[in-house]
Specification:
- This protein has 635 residues and is of the alpha+beta class.
- It is built from 22 helices and 29 strands.
């Protein structure tokens, strides 16, 4: 496996201008046998129109067909490394390695009107579902009319499909052209399309489970047979998928692999014979025959399979603290451990609850000086050395430096380790009194104590959070405790305004997600990953009918975001976005520690066309944005 930085621009260009391919297309021998036996039409009839085939420039070489990729996961219906090896069939995809550009993918292109209220999507002509049925605008119209606008299936319509609180209109122009029409400008429409696959629904299959198409008696019989109480439960069960991979074996897909079988311990996928991509020599992708994914009991078994060479690709559940172990077993397990970059603005962020129900604590938490002091008391170099082998970058929570709105001063704000200055700031706030045990007191005479609540996931671990708590105790004389909570409990406590401080990953740092989804920078939504101000978020969400009314400077930030998300002028959008990022840098609504840390990925030596650098984050679809259909098993 080799690094090919020079290919990035080439890949980008190839995706905009289709390369000429041979009139004689190549295909898997397994599919060729099915063609000869009359089970499948010829390859020419399974691929899109020749001008609309998505052509992939292989990273290293043209591949060879055959073999099953061995992966693993920890949940029968959850994330797994099988998903990392299947491109998400979204209209657009992020460029590699950092997602700063968007590339036409399933859509041939999207044309925006001058005022950015109308978006005409031109689909690739001749794309077919995995069962051979054509994919057309009828499928998207079915999603719009029968799913999005159906209150049983969609009780609340998301912001991606609204402008000025009005749901968009959809106009079908022809089989391959459809227009989305908004009440006001939607300048980040394509950003939203990077993750939007919910609108890719096979009407020909799913309509049999919908009351607008199926007879009442037939539908009631299917609902009863499946053990459900209502038709929409059956519908959602049949439409069950995880990213690009269907979890219902009968559900047609536009992804490279379709489900073959699934149990509580295993799921397997086989190639989609109608997949719409080829390599530069006209060979239909994917190269491999399919993916096997074992469902494991815990992460220790997962690590054991990596070091013993039982997995071809592993990454989703790998952690950097095990990196020395992964490296030490490479020769024995016949794999290589490569390091991608975590695409997080902060590996861990600490959201200080400025709408805390305790009035005395709330008044302290609302002071920018207090949050600045907390930031100055963190030794980020020690965090990098202890947890990231010195490879993480001390930085404040903000967007990545590849983001078009980034400025260095955002990342550098309040990151120096200066306990003396931090203590001076707390003293200046009147927090200079201490109790008999040496802990600082609040103005009301109570000990200044608070708890960091932690959901352990991805880059957030108890030892990382505990070290930050130690910094605040030892350097600032604050009584800080740490407690681990489940995701389910956090989902109740965070929007319920019951947390003091919440730790979570500082995601949404790429151009894909900011400013479309500004979780860390304004009171956006009252959810458990956005906890610096849950009651402010409730106030905005309810139109002022519930929650806590924010001060004017918070209202101003929210208004700036509302304006930039419907502002057609690009320069003004940048100005507004940087106003929000500058406010985070100065006020540290959420405190970052380090960012751009390494993330380990294990790749079996027999694999080819696997990139050894990239951005590991949902924003850019992890490895899914690298056209993993090109991966093959070498000799």
């Amino acid at each position: 496996m080799k690094t090919h930085r020079s290919l990035y621009l080439l890949v980008l260009l190839l995706c905009f201008v289709a390369l000429p391919v041979s009139a004689q297309y190549g295909e898997s021998p397994l599919l060729a046998e099915r063609v000869e036996e009359g089970e499948l039409p010829p390859i020419e009839d399974r691929l899109p129109h020749p001008d609309d085939i998505y052509v992939v420039e292989p990273l290293e070489m043209i591949g060879q067909y055959g073999g099953m990729l061995r992966t693993a996961g920890l949940s029968a219906e959850g994330d797994g490394d099988d998903q990392m090896l299947a491109s998400l069939p979204a209209f657009y995809k992020p460029s590699i390695p950092y997602g700063e550009e968007f590339i036409p993918h399933l859509a041939k292109n999207i044309e925006a009107s001058e005022d950015m209220t109308e978006f005409t999507i031109n689909l690739r002509r001749g794309v077919r579902w995995s069962d051979g049925e054509p994919f057309t605008t009828e499928d998207i119209l079915f999603w719009y009319e029968d799913i999005l606008l159906n209150e049983d299936l969609t009780p609340a319509i998301g912001a991606d499909w609204k402008a000025d609180d009005q749901v968009m209109d959809v106009e079908v122009i022809d089989d391959y052209t459809i227009k989305f029409i908004y009440a006001s400008a939607k300048p980040y429409f394509i950003n939203d399309m990077i993750h939007s696959v919910s609108l890719l629904v096979p009407k020909h299959y799913m309509k049999q489970f919908h009351p607008n198409y199926a007879s009442e008696d037939e539908l009631d019989a299917m609902v009863a047979e499946a053990g459900f109480d209502a038709w929409y439960q059956l519908f959602m069960n049949k439409d069950n998928s995880q990213y690009a991979l269907p979890l219902n074996p009968d559900l047609p897909t536009l992804g490279p692999f379709k489900m073959d079988r699934r149990t509580s311990e295993h799921r397997s996928f086989v190639r989609n014979p109608y997949y719409w991509k080829t390599d530069t020599e006209g060979n239909q992708l994917p190269y491999v025959d399919g993916i096997e994914n074992q469902i494991l009991g815990d992460g220790e078994i997962y690590n054991g399979m990596i070091i013993s060479g039982q997995l071809d690709f592993a990454g989703f559940f790998m952690t950097l603290d095990n990196y020395p172990m992964y490296r030490s077993f490479e020769d024995e397990g016949e794999y290589e451990t490569v390091l991608w970059t975590n695409g997080l603005g902060a590996e861990v962020k600490y959201a200080i609850n400025q709408t805390h129900p305790d009035e005395a604590l709330r008044s302290i938490f609302q002071e920018a000086t207090f949050r600045q002091a907390l930031s100055l008391a963190i030794d980020r170099e020690e965090i990098s050395e202890v947890f990231y082998f010195g490879h993480a970058e001390p930085r404040q929570l903000t967007v990545l430096d590849s983001h078009p709105y980034y400025k260095p001063e955002y990342a550098d704000a309040w990151i120096e380790f200066d306990p003396e200055r931090a203590n001076q700031k707390l003293d200046a706030l009147g927090l200079d009194e201490r109790d008999s045990e040496g802990y600082r007191l609040r103005p009301d005479g109570e000990r200044l104590s608070f708890t960091i609540e932690t959901v352990v996931i991805a880059s957030v671990t108890m030892d990382k959070v505990s070290l930050v708590a130690d910094f605040w105790r030892e350097n600032l004389d604050l009584d800080v405790s740490v407690t681990q909570v489940s995701g389910e409990l956090a989902a109740q406590r965070a929007p319920g305004n019951m947390m003091d401080v919440n730790s979570w990953t500082g995601g949404g740092a790429t151009y894909v997600n900011f400013p479309s989804h500004p979780y860390a920078y304004i009171p956006y939504l009252p959810i458990w990953s956005c906890t610096a101000w849950p009651e402010y978020a409730h106030w905005f969400q309810s139109g002022g009918e519930s929650g806590m009314e924010p001060p004017d400077h918070i209202k101003d930030l929210r208004a700036a975001w509302a304006q930039l998300t419907k502002e057609p002028d690009a320069e003004l959008r940048k100005e507004l976005a940087q106003k929000i990022l500058a406010a985070q840098a100065e006020n540290v609504w959420s405190i970052g520690t380090v960012g751009r840390g390494p993330h380990p990925i294990a790749v079996n030596n027999r694999l080819r066309n696997v990139n050894d650098q990239g951005l590991w984050t949902w924003d850019v679809l992890w490895s899914m944005s690298h056209d993993p259909e090109q991966i093959f098993i070498g000799d």
